[in-house]
Amino acid sequence: MDPRQQQILQAILESFIKTAAPVGSRFIYETYHFGVSPATIRNEMMALEEEGYIAQPHTSAGRVPTSRAYRLMVDQLQPDQRLFTRVRQDLNRVRKQYLLQRTKEQLYEAVAILAAATQNVSFATLPELERVFYVGVGNILKQPEFSADPVATTRVVETLEHELYEALSGLEILPEGAVYIGEENLIPEFQSCSLLAIPYGHNGFKGVLGILGPTRMDYAYNLAALKAALEFLN
Asked: HEC profile for the chain?
C-alpha cells in the first residue's frame, strides 16, 4: 500500500468510526484536502477495495472499512502520551460524575433514615451542586408549636428550601458538630427551632449533615443519631 492509499484508508477509518456512515470519495475529497482530484481518490478507493481493506454495503454508494483495515490500524498504533492524557482526563471526569450521582443517592438515603429515626427534618448539603437535600417536613408539621402557627411554619419550610445552603456555607462547623438553639440561629425564621449540624466527607465530596426541629427536641438522642448517621454515610 502506497502512502496516499494509506492516507485515504486512514481518513475512511476516522470518518466511519465517528459516524458509522459509509464514506464516499466526494466526502474524502471535500473534507481531507489531499491535493488530488476526486477521480484519483475514486481510483485509490477501488484499489483499496480490491485489496480487501474497504467494502461497499448494498444500500450505499460509500465504502466501509473491513476487518483487515482495522487490523492494519491496530498493528500500526504507536504509544501516544497526549492521547493517554486525554483518556485519563475523560476517565476522571466520568468517575467524578459517577461518584457525584452515587453521593447524591447515599446522602438522600442517610437523610431519609435520619429523619425517620428522629422525627424531625434532616438535611445534607452538597456544595458541588450548591444544593440542600432535606426530608421530614411532615414531621415538624405534626409538632404542636408548628401546627399552631401555620404562617411561621411556612416560613421555616421556605427558608429550609431557599436559604439554608447559603447560611450553612457561612458557618465554620467543627468536626464534633454544632448546636444552634432558638435565637442562636443566624436565620430569623429558624429562631423557633434548633439546628444540629456536623461536617461529612464522602467519595471526595464534603458538606454538612444536620437536623432541624423544635427547641424542645431530645438533644441527646438527636446528637447521637446525627453522629451515627455520619458513620453510616462513611
From this structure: CCHHHHHHHHHHHHHHHHHCCCECHHHHHHHHCCCCCHHHHHHHHHHHHHCCCEECCCCCCCEEECHHHHHHHHHCCCCCHHHHHHHHHHHHHHHHHHHHHHHHHHHHHHHHHHHHHHCCEEEEEEHHHCEEEEECHHHHHCCHHHHCCHHHHHHHHHHHHHCHHHHHHCCCCCCCCEEEEHHHCCCHHHCCEEEEEEEEEECCEEEEEEEEEECCCCHHHHHHHHHHHHHHHC
